[in-house]
Amino acid sequence: QVQLVESGGGLVQPGGSLRLSCAPHESEYIFSVGAMAWYRQEPGKQRALVAHITAVGTTNYADSVKGRFTISRDNAKNTMSLEMSSLKPEDTAVYYCNMVIGFQAYWGQGTQVTVSS
């Protein structure tokens, strides 16, 4: 069973920036990772895709974050990041990372991002 470890959430003012990171625990035992993605979930709502990146680096974003968020990956380290800028109160949510490893999808535990003055 693979555990994904997230970091970087927190409280930020509107217009601010945050960087989220995700990596498999004990990643030295993982040889390759397929697609990676970030999702977010607001209270009372379903989890929704924020950004997606394929194994070869093709990216896709939710319309609400295009131009503000950037997803990236380091295939040598099997890590993934989400750079978030120009944050808005409506970006407040629990953010989850997702990775496909060995044709199975794994989830991180979630990290809270709160955008508020």
> Mind summarizing the main beta sheet?
7 strands, mixed
Number of beta strands: 11
Distance between the termini: 39 Å
Flag low-confidence runs.
none
Structure overview:
The protein has 117 residues and is mainly β. It is built from no helices and eleven strands. The strands form two sheets. Strands 2, 4, 5, 6, 9, 10 and 11 form a seven-stranded mixed beta sheet that branches. A hairpin with a 5-residue loop joins strand 5 and strand 6 (59-61). The chain is globular.
Summed up:
By secondary structure, the chain is mainly beta. Helix content is 0%, strand content 50%.
Which labels suit this protein?
single chain; 117 residues; mainly beta; seven-stranded mixed β-sheet; globular
Which helices and strands occur, and which strands form pairs?
Layout: E1 4-7, E2 10-12, E3 18-24, E4 36-41, E5 48-53, E6 59-61, E7 69-74, E8 79-84, E9 93-101, E10 104-107, E11 111-115
Parallel strand pairs: 2-11
Antiparallel strand pairs: 1-3, 3-8, 4-5, 4-9, 5-6, 7-8, 9-10, 9-11
